[in-house]
Design brief:
Distance between the termini: 23 Å
Order of helices and strands: HEEHHE
Strand order of the largest sheet: 1-2-3
Structural class: alpha+beta
Helix content: 25-40%
Shape: elongated
Number of helices: 3
Number of strands: 3
Number of domains: 1
């Protein structure tokens, strides 16, 4: 099993990490941000990839409802 490095001082100062991604919206792309409770970007990215089907569904549901904030869809990990 892969071990993640300990969070850097910068990451500890920043707190929980967010990871951004895009989904297709017709001929355009919609920017989405997933806020996590994880301390490192690597862990946040791994969480996104491991949970992609559920995260994508949440993003598409938010897109369908028009739930935008500053032109972005913002999601929170559960």
């Amino acid at each position: 099993m892969r071990k993640f490095p300990k969070p850097s001082e910068q990451e500890l100062k920043e707190g929980p990490q967010a990871v951004s991604f895009q989904i297709a919206n017709g001929n355009a792309r919609q920017t989405c941000i997933l806020q996590t409770t994880l301390p490192t970007k690597a862990q946040a990215q791994k969480y996104l990839l491991a949970n992609w089907p559920a995260v994508e569904k949440m993003a598409r549901d938010a897109l369908a409802m028009g739930a935008f904030e500053d032109g972005q869809i913002k999601l929170m990990m559960s």
